[in-house]
């Protein structure tokens, strides 16, 4: 991942923006490296110039990554934040959370 960031910086000759990092985070999620995706997506939230759409997208993708890791409370927290920033994400969150309650219930049952 560090190599990908270096390549992008070289190609662009400027620092990565929030939207660059969200795009990278989404690609990393698709590769299955959720902890790396979380790290990159958190960095995207540090960019004060990120638009509401970019911030909402970062929170949504963080929710997806945390859900994939079984971190259901953190997933729900980040899904909620994506809606708070941009309520257009409501349908996406509803879709992402299908079956979420059941997964969470099973997880809590196993942990106990």
Question: What key attributes describe this structure?
Answer:
single chain; 112 residues; mainly alpha; Serine Threonine Protein Phosphatase 5, Tetratricopeptide repeat; 77% helix; globular
Would you write up a description of this structure?
It is a single chain. The chain is 77% helix and 0% strand. With 112 residues, it is mainly α. The protein starts with a helix and ends with a helix. The chain has helices at residues 2-12, 18-31, 34-44, 52-68, 72-85, 90-96, 100-111. It is built from 7 helices and no strands. Helix 2 packs antiparallel against helix 3 (34-44), helix 2 (18-31) packs parallel to helix 4 (52-68) and helix 4 packs antiparallel against helix 5.
CATH topology label: Serine Threonine Protein Phosphatase 5, Tetratricopeptide repeat
Helix content, binned percent: over 70%
Please tell me the overall pLDDT.
81
Largest sheet entry: none
Number of helices: 7
Radius of gyration, in Å, reads 15 Å
The counted number of beta strands is: 0
In the CATH hierarchy, what is the architecture at level 2? Alpha Horseshoe
Q: Spell out the CATH superfamily.
A: Tetratricopeptide repeat domain
For the record, the CATH class is: Mainly Alpha
> Alpha-carbon distance between the termini?
36 Å
Count of the separate structural domains: 1
Instruction: Assign the structural class, choosing from mainly alpha, mainly beta, alpha/beta, alpha+beta, or little secondary structure.
Output: mainly alpha
Query: SSE order in H/E notation?
Result: HHHHHHH
- List unreliable stretches of 5+ residues: none
Question: What fraction strand?
Answer: under 5%
* Cα shape: globular
